[in-house]
Amino acid sequence: MMEEDEIVDGGDLGADGAVGDNSNAMDELTETMKKVNVNGVPYEPLADGEYDAIVLGTGLTECVISGILSVAGLKVLHADKNEYYGGQSASVSLEQLFDKFKESKVELPKDVYGSSRDYNIDLIPKFIIGNGDLVRLLLHCDVAKYLEFRVVEGSFVYSGSRPHKVPVTAREAMTSGLLGLWEKNRCRQFFSYVNGYNPDDPEAHEKKDLKKMTMRELFKYYALQAETIEFVGHALALYTDDTYLDKPAEVTVKKIQLYANSLLRFTKSPYLYPLYGLGELPQAFARLSAVHGGTFMLNTPIDEILYNGSEQAIGIKSDGKVATCKYIVAAPEYFREKSMPVAKVVRCYCILAEPPPHTRESGSCQIVIPAAQAKRQTDIYVLVLSADHKVTPGGRYVALVSTTVETDNPAVEIQFGLNLLGHIIDKVVTVDDVLAPRSSGNDDKVFLSRGYDATTHFQTTSADVFDLYKRIFGQNLEIQTKNASTEE
Amino acid sequence: MPERTKLLKVIILGESGVGKTSILERYVRHSFSQQYKATIGADFLSMDVIIDDKPVPLQIWDTAGQERYQSLGAAFYRGADGVLLVYDVTDARSFEGLDAWRQEFIVSANPRDPDTFPFVVLGNKIDLISRPRAVSQKKAQQWCLQKGGLTHFETSAADNINIDLAFETVARSAVKRGEEEEEFILPETVEINRKPAEEQCNC
Ligand SMILES: Nc1nc2c(ncn2[C@@H]2O[C@H](COP(=O)(O)OP(=O)(O)OP(=O)(O)O)[C@@H](O)[C@H]2O)c(=O)[nH]1
Ligand SMILES: [Mg+2]
């Protein structure tokens, strides 16, 4: 708005500062005073021109960091090349989804799909663990007030020939078809041990040192069968593969406790999901940042990153204008040369008219297909959402089937998951690289976040926030949550 | 089921400097400051408005700098029940901007009734009569008519003219709109910081 008046000549100022000769000396002087100098070259300022930090990309990780930086009193410029928030973690309408991933434009008749704009489909859907780190971040930053959450109704695990409800109480476990296969007593003993385990209380260890003992050994101690182990490891501890078995058991025991504690809070399932889709999350943190003075610019393509003589980032250039900074925080897609693919994820978005069979008509659920069930190395995940969370028009469901790519034919790898969905009205498949930073960012002052992996919860994303914070500030992010139990 | 008064979300939109924050401050805190400070540090304020002798809780959202580069994002507009569109009667450009704000709201908030959605248009700073007016009342009314008969007031946050009326009007239309929407179902949402459910005996 105000910027328009300030544009004197559209052209870039070259290195030798060729200013138009028609303006009078006074104007010229005020113009140069407004300019930003980088390596001795004056530029038109981008927004206010000088910042402490510039954040590129409005994915969840970048927005959390942006909020934290602004709250800490730093001057932040936050830009995104897209005209919407969320980057890789945006939620889009059905038309936007199909435009993005289908080869040619498709008609979307309303009687088949409902209204395209009533869809808020996450490009990367995940559920939020009720007692997990993301909830702690939401409370710490006090942004939960911008959001509304609803519990995910069901959590299922594939076993034998169909999905089974993951039991949420011991009683449910005893009557579950899933547990029909189990040695009930041993299982009960195992859970009772896990429940009582406290790393600080040797009494509760029952002479087992879980810092040394592997999870495989702990399972063996309770003589649990393969199906049970699969269920505990993948549906409760939420591992994507079986490498955890040979690591110290304590980590896994804590993960099972997290699941159980989250369940205690929300009873139906341990998962939460925001109304209108995950795209709301980055926007809530962006608002926090804006409220504390952060400047936001969507639709801002980055022409160039500016470096000083020691190859450290000191600014960005967009549309010929420049803003300077002490460092840049960015999503890896803004710096392809500084990031590398660490995995590939295949995702298939499906539109359904009914919830998948055997999910008890749940308006939202997760189905975990443990790797071994599909004869793979990594699990396949199915997430189902509906109008319950305002992400589809009434009477329509979206199911996302995803897994880490293991072969040259990813489309075939997800077939196992698609087979569980019943009739599919339409679908699109995409394969994406998961990018990770090549270096910590301390040398070049470019701190990159990680791409989003195949897991269906935010634990890895939250871990990335903590890691990014530590790389930037050299210390751990201390989380203070108003403890629920201290209220009233 | 206990009757639940729905919280009404009202957002204030308009170009920078037209007086959005001043209008909100006048209404909620009964105060006014001459000094201009671009809004930072505000998000929403809550306040009950009395309609037909009943208190209706309002949550009023001010913008916080994200609008400077048209970067408010869909979530900001989401779930709004009413909008105050503000211009400055001494600034023609602020009036011309209204159309874009209304359009942006409709695209981003995606209300099911864009043509009848409760927009109330406010021509602010009407106390500045000594300055030439840049937007005549007639011109503004014509625009409101064109957009399907939007309510229009001329206001002053400085002299407290029509401020309460503006909020009452937008709240009243929002309440009415809520009543007309039969199929409106509030999804059961949860507090994320809620206490763990009572420890049940799971035996
Ligand atoms: N005379 C007069 N001045 C007003 C009135 N309302 C606001 N102002 C002045 O106009 C200036 C801008 O008011 P704000 O309320 O900060 O405007 P805003 O729309 O919130 O601006 P941004 O936060 O930048 O978007 C301030 O100096 C106010 O004192 C009014 O009714 N009459
Ligand atoms: Mg303001």
UniProtKB/TrEMBL annotation, chain A:
<dbReference type="InterPro" id="IPR000806">
    <property type="entry name" value="RabGDI"/>
</dbReference>
<dbReference type="InterPro" id="IPR036188">
    <property type="entry name" value="FAD/NAD-bd_sf"/>
</dbReference>
<dbReference type="InterPro" id="IPR018203">
    <property type="entry name" value="GDP_dissociation_inhibitor"/>
</dbReference>
<dbReference type="GO" id="GO:0005093">
    <property type="term" value="F:Rab GDP-dissociation inhibitor activity"/>
</dbReference>
<feature type="region of interest" description="Disordered">
    <location>
        <begin position="1"/>
        <end position="20"/>
    </location>
</feature>
<dbReference type="GO" id="GO:0016192">
    <property type="term" value="P:vesicle-mediated transport"/>
</dbReference>
<dbReference type="GO" id="GO:0007264">
    <property type="term" value="P:small GTPase-mediated signal transduction"/>
</dbReference>
<protein>
    <recommendedName>
        <fullName>Rab GDP dissociation inhibitor</fullName>
    </recommendedName>
</protein>
<dbReference type="GO" id="GO:0015031">
    <property type="term" value="P:protein transport"/>
</dbReference>
<comment type="similarity">
    <text>Belongs to the Rab GDI family.</text>
</comment>
<dbReference type="Pfam" id="PF00996">
    <property type="entry name" value="GDI"/>
</dbReference>
<dbReference type="GO" id="GO:0005737">
    <property type="term" value="C:cytoplasm"/>
</dbReference>
UniProtKB/TrEMBL annotation, chain B:
<dbReference type="InterPro" id="IPR027417">
    <property type="entry name" value="P-loop_NTPase"/>
</dbReference>
<keyword id="KW-0636">Prenylation</keyword>
<keyword id="KW-0449">Lipoprotein</keyword>
<protein>
    <submittedName>
        <fullName>Uncharacterized protein</fullName>
    </submittedName>
</protein>
<dbReference type="InterPro" id="IPR005225">
    <property type="entry name" value="Small_GTP-bd"/>
</dbReference>
<keyword id="KW-0342">GTP-binding</keyword>
<dbReference type="GO" id="GO:0005525">
    <property type="term" value="F:GTP binding"/>
</dbReference>
<comment type="similarity">
    <text>Belongs to the small GTPase superfamily. Rab family.</text>
</comment>
<dbReference type="InterPro" id="IPR001806">
    <property type="entry name" value="Small_GTPase"/>
</dbReference>
<keyword id="KW-0547">Nucleotide-binding</keyword>
<dbReference type="Pfam" id="PF00071">
    <property type="entry name" value="Ras"/>
</dbReference>
<dbReference type="GO" id="GO:0003924">
    <property type="term" value="F:GTPase activity"/>
</dbReference>
